[in-house]
Amino acid sequence: MVNIADSKSGINMEITMAISGFSPAAAPPGTYISIPKKKLLQNNNLDISSSNSRTNTWVDSMRASSPTRIKSSPFSDDQNSWMVQHPSALNVFDEITSASKGKQIVMFLDYDGTLSPIVDDPDRAFMSDAMRATVRKLARYFPTAIVSGRCRDKVYSFVRLAELYYAGSHGMDIKGPSKGSKYTKGSQAVLFQPASEFLPMIDEVYKALLEVTKSTPGSRVENNKFCVSVHFRCVDEKRWNELARQVGSVLEGYPDLRLTQGRKVLEIRPTIKWDKGKALEFLLESLGYANCTDVFPVYIGDDRTDEDAFKVLRERGQGFGILVSKAPKETNASYSLQEPSEVMAFLRRLVSWKKMSLRRQFRMRRRVEEIKMSLPH
Ligand SMILES: O=P(O)(O)OC[C@H]1O[C@H](O[C@H]2O[C@H](CO)[C@@H](O)[C@H](O)[C@H]2O)[C@H](O)[C@@H](O)[C@@H]1O
């Protein structure tokens, strides 16, 4: 185990032997690596100061519901042109697989809204058995990671597949497969927690938010270990202003925290330069694909927080993102799927395609052997 600690900033990271390629883990066991706080902290670009205008901005954003949504009616011109720019991954399946030719596909899957349908009660966002079986098969053919805003243990309790990588708390809590996977070498596992110094603060904020939002019916506070979610899906819209004020009153005392928004949820997290995009890069490095041209990452997600990962893929010019959405949204993803059932159909096709191409390769190799054997020595 490599213990990475910066005594000045108090930032601690524990890495249980990263797989390969990731530079901090290359340090000899037991050594300490200093990570300047400046490198990890970023400017809090969201206004969490106390003011009415701040509350109004939040409420406007909450009203937009899925904040990156472009207003349009079904089958409007907007929708049609959006679908041209972001075609269904099912319709262009052959295009996608031929782009991946000769490269290792690595799969990244968001959880809520991608593998499980959105429901009112976050504790009941179960994944179907059919989806679990599909993801299990997928992981046999491709390294697969679940990247979620949820606490890692919670998302694991829903997915229950030990052969996957998990990046919980928006990528701030990464763990490799606990069950043998052909993509891990020996018993090496990976654990990366870049925000561990924030644990006591997050816990404190969670408790304060629980207390202050008690008077708002329908609100729900979820402790996601390195971040906190305040749900407003079941709060009457007339009370969103009140809820935003309550959250703001708590955050005032915590300049090292920032606020982002997901689907009917306010998310409070540390102001470190770490997100789902960074988690994707970390996982690719851990898998040994740091500077490789022969890797093809595919990230499927439905939320604004998934945009960080879509953006990384665009910038790297590698693989692509698939946005799960029924409505047009501003996105860095290249393709779209409408809902989790389409995600499952896409994953199944990917598995069938891979099986077929492996069989084809096997037949070709056997044929070559037969020809070689039939040649006079
Ligand atoms: O990154 P994700 O895996 O998509 O996690 C993002 C948030 O997902 C959960 O909330 C969302 O799903 C709930 C259940 O369907 C729904 O009730 C809620 O309105 C959605 O925002 C999770 O509960 C949050 O903690 C995650 O941050």
Automatic annotation (TrEMBL):
<comment type="similarity">
    <text>Belongs to the trehalose phosphatase family.</text>
</comment>
<dbReference type="GO" id="GO:0004805">
    <property type="term" value="F:trehalose-phosphatase activity"/>
</dbReference>
<dbReference type="Pfam" id="PF02358">
    <property type="entry name" value="Trehalose_PPase"/>
</dbReference>
<protein>
    <recommendedName>
        <fullName>Trehalose 6-phosphate phosphatase</fullName>
        <ecNumber>3.1.3.12</ecNumber>
    </recommendedName>
</protein>
<comment type="pathway">
    <text>Glycan biosynthesis; trehalose biosynthesis.</text>
</comment>
<dbReference type="InterPro" id="IPR003337">
    <property type="entry name" value="Trehalose_PPase"/>
</dbReference>
<comment type="function">
    <text>Removes the phosphate from trehalose 6-phosphate to produce free trehalose. Trehalose accumulation in plant may improve abiotic stress tolerance.</text>
</comment>
<keyword id="KW-0346">Stress response</keyword>
<dbReference type="GO" id="GO:0005992">
    <property type="term" value="P:trehalose biosynthetic process"/>
</dbReference>
<keyword id="KW-0378">Hydrolase</keyword>
<dbReference type="InterPro" id="IPR023214">
    <property type="entry name" value="HAD_sf"/>
</dbReference>
<dbReference type="InterPro" id="IPR006379">
    <property type="entry name" value="HAD-SF_hydro_IIB"/>
</dbReference>
<dbReference type="InterPro" id="IPR036412">
    <property type="entry name" value="HAD-like_sf"/>
</dbReference>
<dbReference type="InterPro" id="IPR044651">
    <property type="entry name" value="OTSB-like"/>
</dbReference>
